[in-house]
Amino acid sequence: MIRQAQKVRIYPNNEQKQQLAGAMGCCRWWWNYALNKSLETYQETGKSLSRSGLNAFLPNLKQEHEWLKTEVYSQSLQQTSLNLSRAFINFFEKRARFPRFKSKHGKQSVGFPQSVKIEGDKIKLPKIGWVRASFDRRYAGKIKTVTITKDRTDKYFASIIYEVEACFVSGNGNKILGIDLGIKDFAIVNDGVKTSKYSNPRHLKKHEKNLARKQKKLARKQPGSKSRQKARKLVAKVHARISNSRQDFLHKLSRKLTNESKVIVVEDLNVRGLVRNHKLAKAISDAGWGMFVNFLSYKLERENKRLIEINRFFPSSHICPNCLTQVSRMDLNVREWVCNNCMTHHDRDEAASKNIRAEGIRILKSDGTADSASRETVRPNRGRKTKARQDSVKLETACDSEVAGGSSSISLSASNYDKP
Ligand SMILES: [Zn+2]
Question: What is the distance in A from the centroid of ligand 1 to the CA of 317?
Answer without folding.
Answer: 13
